Amino acid sequence: MTPVQTHSRSTRSTHPAAVHGTVADVMYAAGPQVWNDMTVEVALSVMAAAGTGHLIVCDEDGQCTDLVTRARLTAVRTGLGYTDRVRLRDVAGVDAGGFASPLTTVAEAEHVMRRRRLGVLPVVDEDGNALGVIALSR
Questions:
Q1: For residue 46, what are the contacts with CB-CB under 8 A and spacing of at least 6?
Q2: What pLDDT was estimated at residue 119?
Q3: Where are the domains positioned within the chain?
Q4: Which of 31, 53, 114, 121 has the fewest Cβ atoms surrounding its Cβ within 10 A?
Q5: Which residues contact 114 (CB under 8 A, 6 or more apart)?
Q6: CATH classification number, 3-136, choose in 3.40.50.2300, 3.40.50.720, 3.10.580.10, 3.30.56.10
Q7: How confident is the prediction along the chain (138 residues), in pLDDT tens digits per residue?
Q8: Which DSSP string corresponds to the chain?
């Protein structure tokens, strides 16, 4: 698996040599960002409407706290004890893989993603604001 660049937020290079650089060279737009008090049901609806498989979860200060995937939320929804009142903060950190800095090398990010079996890793700045995501191709 190797990182894939799709739509970049910036004008960074899309040259194949970029995979030897930093995460900032290959990240793409973070996609929808939601608050941690959103219910799982609403989050799944937002994903469906946006045509995405993940959401960046933010706290009340707008800082990135988690990334949730459709697979993770579907598993929560089918679990015992689930109600339609379960919020993203209630499932946060279950399988969180952390975050990457824009200065993290692509090789380091790939290593972390493979070791933790993550398909997507958020890229955040020093203040915790989501800048984008990096994804592994299948």
A1: 32, 34, 38, 55
A2: 86
A3: 3-136
A4: 114
A5: 1, 136
A6: 3.10.580.10
A7: 233 333 333 334 444 434 569 999 999 998 899 999 999 999 999 999 999 999 999 999 989 999 999 999 999 999 988 999 999 998 876 556 689 999 999 999 999 889 888 888 999 999 999 999 998 875
A8: --EE--S-SS----SGGGGGSBHHHH-B----EEETTSBHHHHHHHHHHHT-SEEEEE-TTS-EEEEEEHHHHHHHHTSTT--TT-BHHHHTTSS----B-TTSBHHHHHHHHHHHT-SEEEEE-TTS-EEEEEEE--
Look up residue 113 and give its two tokens: 């993603």
